[in-house]
Design goal:
- By secondary structure, the chain is α/β, with parallel strands linked by helices.
- The chain has one domain: Rossmann fold, CATH 3.40.50.300.
- Helix content is 45%, strand content 18%.
- The chain has an eight-stranded mixed β-sheet, sandwiched between helices.
- Strand 6, helix 8 and strand 7 form a beta-alpha-beta unit.
- Helix 1 packs across helix 13.
- The longest helix is centred in the C-terminal third of the chain and has 17 residues.
- It starts with a strand and ends with a helix.
- The relative contact order is 0.19.
- It binds adenosine-5'-diphosphate and magnesium ion.
């Protein structure tokens, strides 16, 4: 059965797209079939990390949401493109065309389609996991995409605004009986080694912290030019992503 997981955050720039792209690559390298969907429809970014240019994206999620194409036409198999030799990695990108983004903001779309995306990806490719990279905040459209997923990863920094917002998000998701986990990202190195950090932040955000990822200058300097873990397999950030992937797999296996 296919499981869907939203990667969400209360505030922007917490590392959602970075986590989505790198985690998906690690999970594929472990042999899983993974699909990543850019649901940050008003500020898409996942395609840049994957190095997928506009001419490769013949159709996008926007075309599917407006019934202009079948889902399969908007899905790219980027397994070989990224040099992965195991598993499968699919990508469903959203439009970078200003007029199509404006149309979405003006007209909205049918949110039931999010659930259908997972169903279609299961039918077409028998994927194990669908990862939705979302838009930050608690606006209705984003929230609906998170609620449509089986579980969510809430990416948060240690900033008080992030922590408070993540607590609110986790409480809202709980009202919808949704399971959420927190990923503490960009942790200042001097805090990252505190043994009680994960349990303390779990208490503050009201969701279990399943990863504590330090701030790495190398990741920032990489500037989303490709999937970091594939370029730097021995970097500590990669080790963190592998640990997170293993944790996700154990959650999926119940
Ligand atoms: N652990 C980390 N250490 C250093 N920089 C990071 C880390 N995680 C993400 N970044 C950087 O932070 C910026 C924002 O990340 P991004 O994934 O685009 O956030 P979001 O999708 O939540 O807006 C990017 O430049 C990314 O490379
Ligand atoms: Mg993003």
């Amino acid at each position: 059965m296919t499981v869907s997981m939203a990667i969400h955050s209360y505030r922007g720039g917490t590392g959602k797209s970075t986590t989505a792209a790198n985690l998906a690559a690690v999970l594929a390298a472990m042999g899983l079939k993974v699909a990543t969907v850019d649901l940050d429809l008003t500020s898409p970014g996942l395609h840049m990390i994957y190095g997928v240019t506009a001419n490769l994206l013949k159709h996008t999620l926007n075309d599917y949401l407006y019934g202009k194409c079948k889902l399969g036409n908007a899905v790219l198999d980027i397994t070989r493109y990224l040099g992965l030799s195991r598993g499968r990695l699919y990508f469903l990108g959203s439009s970078m065309k200003p007029e199509e983004i404006a149309k979405l903001l003006r007209e909205g779309y049918d949110e039931n389609l999010f659930r259908k995306i997972t169903e279609e990806l299961e039918k077409l490719y028998s994927v194990d996991l669908v990862i939705f990279d979302t838009h930050p905040g608690l606006t209705e459209d984003t929230l609906l995409s998170v609620i449509s997923s089986d579980l969510s990863l809430l990416v948060t920094r240690m900033d008080k605004q992030d922590i408070t917002g993540t607590y609110i998000t986790a409480q809202v998701l709980r009202r919808f009986k949704k399971v959420s986990y927190a990923v503490l990202n960009m942790v200042p190195p001097k805090f990252a080694s505190i043994p009680e950090l994960a349990s303390e932040v779990s208490r503050l955000v009201g969701a279990p912290v399943i990863a504590v990822i330090p701030f790495y200058e190398d990741v920032l300097e990489h500037r989303s030019h490709g999937v970091f873990v594939l370029k730097h397999p021995r970097h500590p950030f990669t080790t963190q992503m592998v640990k997170l992937a293993e944790r996700i797999v154990s959650i999926l296996r119940g």
